[in-house]
Amino acid sequence: MPAITFRGIRKSYGDTPVIHEFSTEIPDREFLVLLGPSGCGKSTMLRMIAGLIDITGGDLLFDGQRVNDLEPKQRNIAFVFQSYALYPHKTVRANIAFPLLMSRFRWWQHIPIVGMIARWRAMRDPAIATRIEHIAETMELTPYLDRRPRTLSGGQRQRVALARALVREPSVYLLDEPLSNLDAKLRAQMRTEITALHRRVGASFIYVTHDQVEAMTMGTRIILLNDGVVQQSGTPQEIYDEPANTFVARFIGSPAMNLLPVTVQDGQATINGGTTVPATGVPDGSALLGVRAEKVRVAATGPGMPARVAVVERLGAETVVGFRLGLAPNSEEFGAAAVRDLHYAKLPGDAGLAVDDECRVLLDLSGACWFDSHSGARIGARKDVRVA
Ligand code: ADP
């Protein structure tokens, strides 16, 4: 199974750069997630790895060998797309068998009747039949082998698409938003299945998504892209705990990290013109204090900064409370204005707070981050954190 190396990889369409120079090493058997908003260049990266589009500059290496000029089929990769792209007129068995048959295909099998007989015989080859049955069992598709895709649910179809990718035993799997057509419950189930599959097959997976929950739950490593520029590369926990900049801080986590504007002087940060907290190592001037919602405590009374509740989302085991610092009444604006200056707390159980309530806010500053308010870069970022 190859380790994959990107060495100064670039991609442009005409004069328009889509991927800016990018270098990283993906160790063997990694579950790498390429994450970012729509249009940031995730699929372009995946297509370059697959060999479906040219690489404008730099070297792509599989186990130290340059593969820029190799044809897709010489790269031993399997591609699973967002749309299942199954053959509707073929059974599940024939769909799964297809890549195996294609790898044996000869020119004369294009001749109508000869080709049909050859495929019919190949399907009865015990090696192929056993392989399909084994994969079907792994993917829990055995009862459906003789059905056609249209008689299956979305999740079952996606499993057939995965089984079809698995059947060739490739060394790298490329998955392009494979769950985005599924409903929320099925997505959660398939996330678990794909992670288990990764552990079982012991190959490298490269998975594209715009969904940070998928990235956090499935990835052993995440590369977060924005506008073709890598913002950060690291384990899910590193990216969550130590975002390289405010883009990463806002993109990862639900709700996103709170970014409170502060004024720093002599190692003390003043929040909202009132409360002062220690800001060791943060230069004087304006900055942003990043605190995760689970580190914010909101209560109806007691110590803390005065604030007003603007949003209450009850999720059962926990409640997300959106608030604004200060006691000004909530505005009645809609859209972007309605969420401006909102900060969030994630509280266990039912917080006992309602919209428009006055409340008190306490910040637990363990694990807090500081950001430059102009560049957005993290202040005091660890040296091994990749900053764009
Ligand atoms: P993502 O997968 O992150 O949504 P893509 O990799 O599909 O993003 O696209 C990245 C950027 O490249 C987008 O701005 C898109 O419009 C542009 N792009 C993609 N394919 C082409 C193409 N064939 N010609 C020109 N521009 C393209």
From TrEMBL:
The keyword Membrane applies. The keyword Nucleotide-binding applies. PROSITE patterns: ABC_TRANSPORTER_1 (PS00211), ABC_TRANSPORTER_2 (PS50893). Keywords: ATP-binding, Cell membrane, Membrane, Nucleotide-binding, Translocase, Transport. Residues 4-252 form the ABC transporter domain. InterPro entries: AAA+_ATPase, ABC_transporter-like_ATP-bd, ABC_transporter-like_CS, ABC_transpr_MalK-like, ABC_transpr_MalK/UgpC-like, Mo/tungstate-bd_C_term_dom, NA-bd_OB-fold, OB_MalK-like. GO terms for molecular function: ATP binding. Gene3D superfamilies: 2.40.50.100, Nucleic acid-binding proteins, P-loop containing nucleotide triphosphate hydrolases. SMART domains: AAA (SM00382). Pfam families: ABC_tran, OB_MalK. This is ABC transporter ATP-binding protein. The lineage of its organism: Bacteria, Bacillati, Actinomycetota, Actinomycetes, Micromonosporales.
